[in-house]
Amino acid sequence: MAKAVMVYGAGISGRGAAEVLAKRGQQVYLYNDTPCNLDAGLTSQLAAHGGGLVVGKDAYKKALGSAELLVLSPGIPCDSENVLFAEAQGVETISEIELGYRLYGGHIAAITGTNGKTTTTSIVGEMFKRLPVPSAVGGNIGLALSKEVEQLPKEGWLAAELSSFQLEKVKTFCPDIAVVLNLTPDHLERHHTMAAYGGAKKNIFRQQGAAQVTVLNYDDPEVRSWGAETKGQLCYFSRKTELPAGIFMQNGNFVIKWNNKTEVVCNVEELHLFGGHNEENVLAAIACGYFAGVSVEDMADVLRNFRSIEHRLEYVKTIKGVPYYNDSKATNTDSAIKALEAFPKGHIILLAGGHDKLTDLAPMMALVKEKCDALILLGEAKERFHKAALAAGVENIVLADSFEDAVTKAYAMAVPPQVVLLSPACSSYDMFKNYPERGRRFKELVQSLPL
């Protein structure tokens, strides 16, 4: 380990990484662009080894002079001024994920993709609990990856949800199982191009070899093509094609066909999850469980008992015969499309809008026209969404003055067999700290509606 380490960003990932390093006797500077408060325990741990909290560019440059390693939190762009300055000074720059990997050295199933990461990782985490070794879940959910692996032995298994931000600065990261669920436009304000966005995702399998497994979505043409780039053992999954080898659906069954052996895990009708996107998530989770050594019986039991994660097509309540669903986690158009497709009969009153990611709205609005009885728009994005909806021929469009107004308007117009769906297709930063806060507020408002 370097003589001193600078951890950039004092959020969950940064604090977790700084704490883990300090416990190992490392001198750690925790840098944040703006002033913040650390708990007393972390402050004393950092101070005990000559480190501490650093705020402001001048202080950053001074502390960086004694550092040989810069660990980036996911929210820090790789092309930011401070990062480029560090690299110009010869300071090695890595992601917090890379740090966790270097400190751990045990088994990892890593999952990325534009959508479905949290659900898939959560299912895999439940499957790993059935193994006769310790397991954990980390990365983009839960604690920092470096924190999650702190107590995990080398024979353990970690299910890691990884975003493109976290994968940008990995170098030696080589999971036993690497999964790519899908790729659609997202985070272009950070990556600037789809090529750069996809390149970050590919880092999940770049270091793999014949001893590791790369799991790719056969139904996504772009992701399927990445099979030619991996040196890992390639396993495709598909809900549309019965593969000669891989994980696929056949007559509603989830099937494993590998090494000339075919096994049925369970049937889609046994699940509490619904929607084609969740079928893909289940197939990917089965691949992780299978290659990690979870029995088919245990995987089936987990799947039969797994409920939707909070804020992802989460059923809230039925009022006057109309069910309300919280899909606040739909922070991009592709995720919202998957939510709309999950209701085959349509009759959706859709609440959409928020902080605009400036992605193409045409595919989503074409589906809105087909599936939705009404579109209620809110937030910073509502004017651009409104224009795109009109261009697509969507007829019943309502503009809301606030989040509360949107829910009230949905309640006033909803009648059976309609459903009310919050699936914003936007991030939440115009009105909320994050999508969980937005989802919780939606649920509070729904719960307070008159029966």
Provide the fold topology:
Blueprint: E1 5-8, H1 12-23, E2 28-32, H2 40-48, E3 52-55, H3 57-64, E4 69-72, H4 81-88, E5 92-95, H5 96-104, E6 107-112, H6 117-128, E7 135-139, H7 145-148, E8 157-161, H8 164-167, E9 177-180, H9 188-191, H10 194-202, E10 213-217, H11 221-225, E11 233-238, E12 246-250, E13 253-258, E14 261-267, H12 276-292, H13 296-305, E15 314-319, E16 322-326, H14 333-341, E17 348-352, H15 362-371, E18 372-377, H16 382-391, E19 397-399, H17 403-413, E20 419-422, H18 435-447
Helix pairs in contact: 1-2, 6-12, 14-15
**Over the alpha carbons, how many angstroms does the gyration radius reach?**
23 Å
CATH superfamily of the largest domain: Mur-like, catalytic domain
Mean pLDDT: 94
Low-confidence stretches: none
By CATH, the topology of the largest domain is UDP-N-acetylmuramoyl-L-alanine:D-glutamate ligase
Shape: globular
Strand order of the largest sheet: 7-8-6-9-10-11-12-13-14
The overall number of domains is 3
Total strands = 20
Report the β-strand fraction as a percent range. 15-25%
Total DSSP helices: 18
- Largest sheet geometry: 9 strands, mixed
